[in-house]
Specification:
The complex is a heterodimer of chains A (163) and B (215). Chain A has helices at 67-80, 110-124; strands at residues 5-6, 12-16, 20-26, 30-36, 41-47, 88-94, 129-134, 140-145, 151-155, 158-162. Chain A has 163 residues and is α+β, with helices and mostly antiparallel strands. In chain B, helix 1 crosses helix 4 and helix 3 crosses helix 4. Classes of the chains: A alpha+beta (163), B alpha+beta (215). The interface between A and B is large, with 38 and 37 residues.
Chain lengths: 163, 215
C-alpha cells in the first residue's frame, strides 16, 4: 500500500489508485475532490479563498489558494493524466463558519463565500457536484480513496460521513 | 515582505508582545487566584500552508476564543486551550468547580468568552499604552474544534495579502499545570508596518507591496 499523500493548504495533488489523498483540519477552507472512476485517477485541491481578484499581492504567487484559479488547474492536471471531463465526479467538503459573532455581522464569512465560489466555478466548467458535506461550525478531515472514489469525512464527536 | 523582518524588528515585536502578555497573565492569575507563568513570546513567521500544523497537530481538539482588534493596527487575537483545561478554567470562574460539567455548555462558553475578553483587554491596553496606537477589541467568539480548522479559518483572509502570517505567541501555564494555554496576536498585514513604526524600528524594513524601501 503506497503512502497516503497529504494535501496542505493551497495545494493541488493528483494521483492514481491505490493511493489515498487526505487533508486535515479543514475550517473555512474547502477540499475539492475530483475523480475519474474509469482511470481510478483523482485529485484534491485545498482552497482557502474564493477569488484571486481579492489578492492584493502584485503577482499571484499561489494559484492553489483561490477557488477560481485552483479548480481549472486541478481539472487540467487531471486531463493531462488522461482523465475526461465527462467521467469526472466532483465532491466537496469544508466551508465551515468556525466562529459565530452573535449579532455582529462584521466577520467576513469566508466559508460561505468559498462554497458559493466553488459551486459557481463548477457550473461554469459544466461539472456537477455529486455530493457535498459543507457549512456548519465543524472542523473536518477529508480522506479520498482513489481505489473507490469514496471521500470520507471525519469530524470531532460525530460519526464519519462517506460521500 | 513580512518574511524578511530584521532581528531588531523581531526583538521589538517580541518586547511589545511581552508587555501585553505579561498584563494578560497577571489578570489571569488574579482571576483564577493561581500563580501563572508565561513564556517569553515567540514571534513566528509562518507560511500559511504550515499554519494549521501549528500547536500539536491539526486534528487536536481545542477550544479557541477569538477576538478582532480594531483601531490603528487591526489584528486578531486568539486563545487556545485544550478542552479539559478550558473546562477547568470555566469551572473556576463559574465558581462551582465541583458542579462543573464535563461538557462545554452555555455557561462554560460564556465564561471562556469572558476570560478571552478580560485577557484581551489587558493585553491591548498595555500594547496600546506602549505603542501609542489606539486599539479596541470586538466581542469574543468561541469555537470548539480541530485546532487546524480554527487556525486556518482565522488566518485565511491573510491569504489575500500574501503567503505568510506573523504570530506573536505566548504560552501560559499555572504552576500546577492546571492551565495550559496558547495565545496569539496576529497583526493584519498592514498593521505590522504601523506597529514597527510606532516602535521606531521601521527603518530597514520592506514596505507592504514587497519591494525594498530605499536604504
Amino acid at each position: 500500500m503506497p503512502e497516503p499523500i497529504r494535501v496542505g493548504m493551497s495545494e493541488i495533488v493528483v494521483a492514481r489508485a491505490p493511493r489515498v489523498l487526505f487533508t486535515l483540519g479543514l475550517g473555512s477552507c474547502i477540499a475539492i475532490c475530483v475523480y475519474d472512476f474509469f482511470l481510478k485517477t483523482g485529485g484534491m485541491a485545498h482552497i482557502m479563498l474564493p477569488d484571486s481578484s481579492l489578492s492584493s499581492a502584485n503577482t499571484l504567487t499561489n494559484r492553489g489558494k483561490f477557488a477560481d484559479t485552483a479548480i481549472p488547474d486541478l481539472i487540467s492536471s487531471l486531463q493531462k493524466e488522461g482523465a475526461m471531463k465527462e467521467r469526472m465526479v466532483v465532491k466537496i467538503a469544508g466551508g465551515s463558519q468556525m466562529f459565530n459573532f452573535n449579532g455582529l455581522n462584521s466577520q467576513v464569512q469566508i466559508g460561505a463565500r468559498n462554497i458559493a465560489a466553488v459551486e459557481k466555478i463548477m457550473a461554469e466548467l459544466g461539472l456537477k457536484i455529486v455530493s457535498r458535506n459543507v457549512g456548519g461550525h465543524v472542523g473536518r478531515s477529508v480522506y479520498m480513496d482513489l481505489e473507490t472514489g469514496n471521500v470520507t469525512i471525519k469530524m470531532l464527536n460525530s460519526p464519519d460521513v462517506i460521500l | 515582505m513580512i518574511e524578511n523582518l530584521t532581528p531588531i524588528q523581531l526583538d521589538a515585536i517580541r518586547e511589545v508582545g511581552n508587555i501585553g502578555a505579561a498584563h494578560a497573565a497577571t489578570v489571569l492569575s488574579q482571576l483564577l487566584n493561581k500563580r501563572v507563568s508565561m513564556t517569553v513570546p515567540q514571534v513566528n513567521i509562518l507560511p500559511l500552508t504550515e499554519a494549521c500544523d501549528y500547536v500539536g497537530g491539526p486534528e487536536q481538539p481545542m477550544v479557541g476564543v477569538y477576538l478582532r482588534i480594531f483601531g490603528g493596527a487591526p489584528s486578531k487575537m486568539l486563545y487556545l486551550f485544550p478542552e479539559e483545561k478550558a473546562l477547568w478554567v470555566a469551572g473556576l470562574l463559574i465558581n462551582d468547580p465541583e458542579k462543573c460539567s464535563n461538557l462545554l455548555g452555555e455557561m462554560e462558553i460564556s465564561a471562556l468568552k469572558e476570560i478571552g475578553n478580560i485577557l484581551t483587554g489587558a493585553y491591548v491596553y498595555a500594547f496600546s499604552n506602549f505603542t501609542g496606537i489606539n486599539m479596541i477589541s470586538s466581542v469574543p467568539a468561541l469555537a470548539f474544534a480541530m485546532v487546524g480548522a480554527i487556525l486556518s479559518t482565522i488566518l485565511a483572509d491573510l491569504g489575500e495579502m500574501g503567503d505568510f502570517a506573523v504570530l506573536i505567541e505566548t504560552q501560559l501555564t499555572a504552576c500546577d499545570e492546571s492551565v495550559d494555554g496558547h495565545f496569539f496576536l496576529v497583526p493584519d498585514p498592514g498593521s505590522l508596518a504601523t506597529i514597527l513604526e510606532a516602535l521606531g524600528v521601521k527603518e530597514g524594513c520592506q514596505n507592504q507591496s514587497g519591494s525594498e524601501c530605499p536604504k
